[in-house]
Design a protein that fits this description.
The protein is of the alpha+beta class. It has two domains: about 240 residues, Rossmann fold (3-Layer(aba) Sandwich); about 110 residues, Nucleic acid-binding proteins (OB fold (Dihydrolipoamide Acetyltransferase, E2P), Beta Barrel), CATH 2.40.50. The chain is built from eight helices and 20 strands. Strands 7-8-9-3-10-11 form a six-stranded mixed beta sheet, with helices on both faces. Strand 4 and strand 5 form a beta hairpin. The structure holds adenosine-5'-triphosphate (ATP) and magnesium ion (MG). The site of magnesium ion (MG) has 3 residues, from helix 1.
Amino acid sequence: MIRIEQLHVRYRTERGEVHAVRGIDLNVRQGQFFTLLGPSGCGKTTTLRSVAGLERPQEGEIIVGDDLVFSQQRKISIPPYKRDIGMVFQSYAIWPHMNVFENVAFPLREMKKRVSQTDIRSRVRKALSLVQLEGLEDRPAPFLSGGQQQRLALARALVKEPRVLLLDEPLSNLDAKLREETRFELRELVKRLAITTLYVTHDQLEALTMSDVVAVMDQGRVVQEGTPLEIYRAPRDRFVANFIGLSNFLEGRVQKTGQLGEVETPSGTLKCVLADGITAGEAVVVVIRPEDVNLNAGPASQNENILEGKIEAVVFMGDTLECQVAVGTKLIRIKLHPSSPVARGEIVRLRLPAESCHALRA
Ligand SMILES: Nc1ncnc2c1ncn2[C@@H]1O[C@H](COP(=O)(O)OP(=O)(O)OP(=O)(O)O)[C@@H](O)[C@H]1O
Ligand SMILES: [Mg+2]
């Protein structure tokens, strides 16, 4: 539904050129919820604005549906209003001098082909009911709560029933509780309407909970693309592992390859899953998630690593207990059940299942 090929966007500034997007390829299928996830400044908004037609890339092609909407080579650039796309901007950009009804009606009034008053009324009503803002038509937009303003921006993006929805950090202005509720509502809504959605966020939890596919971006490039589970369970490199969730990193060198490899680290030799193409002798970093480390007593099973360490810190987080365990010179973070009977200073045996230890190229 949305195809991006070899997209490059450069901005000219007084202090030289900013190469904001550096050769991005994406393929978003019909009805998919697809998320661009990455730290501030990695080029998410620039990519989204290029799809909307608000940015003019220097290279590449963009296809929406069956339409080539941008091609540098073929000198094609369809203007934004002809792209049949709805967008919610990073700041909602609702019009403060208009009431709720007029905010949603605006895109319809702007259309080249005149829409009748009756049609406008019924389409605005439908869009407002989708986001549960019925009854607030006459309210001036600034007198809505943050969550309501966010939904108003969404209604305005949906009123033309676009084939594609672009959402740029639409939940970032909401407080934590509301954000969590709205996450599920928003995903339900676009899935119900079967709209192809390209979503932008720097919040990994949003990306993991809402998306069918996540593309992790860093410095203008996509560094990994996959389902939330793939991205979380098998990060391809240290950047992704670090950005998505909390991870422990143990540097080492590969001693043995095979179905399970062996990596020698200063904390001990670890059996682990080697990333594709890693060979014996190579420098690697072994990644393990805090929730995959256990403290249970008992003998080691065959595919388990056991490390001895000392609990240095215990922090109660409500639903978990986070501990830092010193293993040699390394601090390993682990997550335990909140009622686990552990105390600072205690000597413990950490159990690291081999299949949860991923060796990536260092
Ligand atoms: N109009 C502009 N002129 C010059 N540089 C720009 C312009 N817009 C963005 N940039 C730069 O391009 C890079 C990518 O910006 P972009 O807004 O796409 O990032 P982002 O991933 O959306 O970040 P954030 O999460 O902070 O919104 C940044 O280095 C930014 O400073
Ligand atoms: Mg942005």
